[in-house]
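Recall from the previous chapter that SMILES is a line notation for molecules. Here it describes S-adenosylmethionine.
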Amino acid sequence: MTINHADIHFNENGTPYAKQFDDLYFSDAKGLGETEHVFLKNNQILERWECWQEQNFVIAETGFGTGLNFLVTLLHFDLFQQKSPDSPLRLHFLSIEKFPINVADLTQALSFYPQLKQYSEELLRQYPLLVSGCHRLSFLEGAVTLDLWFGDVQQVLPQIEVPKAGLVDAWYLDGFAPSKNPEMWNDFLFQHMALLAKDQCSFSTFTAAGFVRRGLIAAGFDAKKCPGHGRKRDMLAGIFTSAQAKTVRVPYFKRAPATDTTTPSIAIIGGGLAAANCAYALSKRGIKANIFCKDNELAQGASGNIQGGFYPQLNADAGNASQIHATAFTYASRMYRELLRSGANFTHQWCGTLQVAFNDKVTQRYQKLVHNKTWPESLIRWVDSQDASNLANVPLPYPGLFIEQGGWLHLPELIAALVMQSKADVKVNHQLVSTELKGDTWQLNWQDGTHSEADIIIYAIGSDSPNLDPLKPLPFRLVRGQVENLNSENELAELTTVLCHKGYMTPSL
Ligand SMILES: C[S@@+](CC[C@H](N)C(=O)[O-])C[C@H]1O[C@@H](n2cnc3c(N)ncnc32)[C@H](O)[C@@H]1O
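With both inputs in hand, we obtain:
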């Protein structure tokens, strides 16, 4: 789905105004009071964090806008963490935005909040390209996750995976005044809020419109009018009181902890990029994983490539595969840059990736991709043969597509960096032959006759997948690849970008 930027201007007070909706993003461009009152206070966010028994607190928002609500919540979560350094609580903030603000406007909008500077800068650094779907951003060393969905609320809400017990602990119901945005404020929204809500999930919204209150009540929220901020007399807030929830007798913020809060032991089978990334992601959630690798060191399979091309495979239509590539690529791009900023070291070049249109069929395919405007130019753009030659620094007779954020990475070094940061235990020379479920625990049987145990197994074994019993039913198809490392000579030694043809070639190391 094509996503368009918000069309905004700033009024004389510096408050951003959306032309698409003929409405202001917030009523006061100077203070944080409106957000603090409407969303934090009326969802009792700070009080709930103090005594929250689960590992995650999940907030969902309709309308990310300038990100002000998120940033104010982030500021308070940072203060909470400083006050309670031993708290394992993590904040998961999920926000949906149909018309993302471009970086220049966002920078201007957020410049009015010097008190949020450190958080705004981090948001701006990670702010996603204009690609529809879910963009996962990370703050406060992984303690806060922002899932920023670019798309219409109506399209996004049904895509969100909901665990049986619900997902959301508090709803920030924003999204411009109902009179200015009637398409968003409807029963579909209220019912999906209920569908995603955990028992005793709270909500708040700046509006006090009667049909919103009635719609929320019909969906199972105990919606009540309460005093608004500043000149606004009323607003709405309340709790999700499904039939089941009414049997809970303790106040919602003192409910019993989830039955099993122990950290599971996780065995990752594999020694490549997938295994290392899993271990790293788990470490961000406070879980130290065990990596079992069949070789005598990591990165001995396809991830042994010392100059792995870094780019997504995009088609002219945003099918599932392209969509996954686009959001995974932009995620990896943010995450690897963040890894480098945090002091990790791996050889790499963000030199861009050039896909040459080397025959008529490929040219037509690439032209269609550009013509369809499925992807923003900041992700992939058309270049003529002169531009292509300049970018590659070698004469090229072809036009093509250029992916600015692409490049290449030294995969064994990247794997070592991820594993080191994850503090995972690595066991080499462990080839898995079978697994058995014993009670709630898996027994892993190794080729040398020894065993290990784990609550959860992650298979990250690439081309070995079809050979292992538990994975045999899955329809894997092996694709052969080949890497050759050669000395660059003559003009190829001057190559300055990754060059994709049927395979790809990287600049010299
Ligand atoms: C009042 S602003 C939100 C302010 C924001 N929470 C903040 O902290 O800056 C409303 C936002 O909702 C977005 N929006 C409106 N209708 C939407 C829809 N149907 N789906 C997703 N986002 C929508 C608008 O583009 C706008 O950014």
